[in-house]
Amino acid sequence: MTVLEIKLIPDPVLRKKAESVKVVTNDIISVLNDMAETMYDAPGIGLAANQVGILKRLVVMDCSTDDEDPNLIKMINPEIIFSSTEISELEEGCLSIPEHKSIVKRPSNIKVRFLNIQGSEEIIDAEGLLSACIQHEIDHLNGVLFVDHISRLKRDIIFRKVKKQIRENEK
Ligand code: NI
Question: What is the pLDDT of the chain when averaged over all its residues?
């Protein structure tokens, strides 16, 4: 397994729509394994393929808390098939927007359908952190970032700070 380079904003790959996976091949499974390794190394609780420069509909996540066993979930072609009208607010961050967090409003409960690494369909009901994480990662596959869900003012502040960080890192 390999730790891959995580793409940071404003990399254009983060704004592209990823393509569906037609067949679950060994290459796809190997990408998912590398993505999991990259996520744990970061460390983060979720990673979408766009974030490592691969435009395929693949996500990995592990939303377990420190006192729980690891719960690595790998999803191929995830699709939200139900969203509650009830809304929850949670603080989100993103490995592609380091050091910035913001409260994001999203549907509280969702149902997601995806293919597992055996190529069979699975459906998961999610609430709380897992629900927000799944929605955040599927957003990535559509070129959407968590900052797109917050006010333009807050987003502009984050983008300005990130540009400044990049300039300073280049010095
Ligand atoms: Ni993210």
Answer: 96
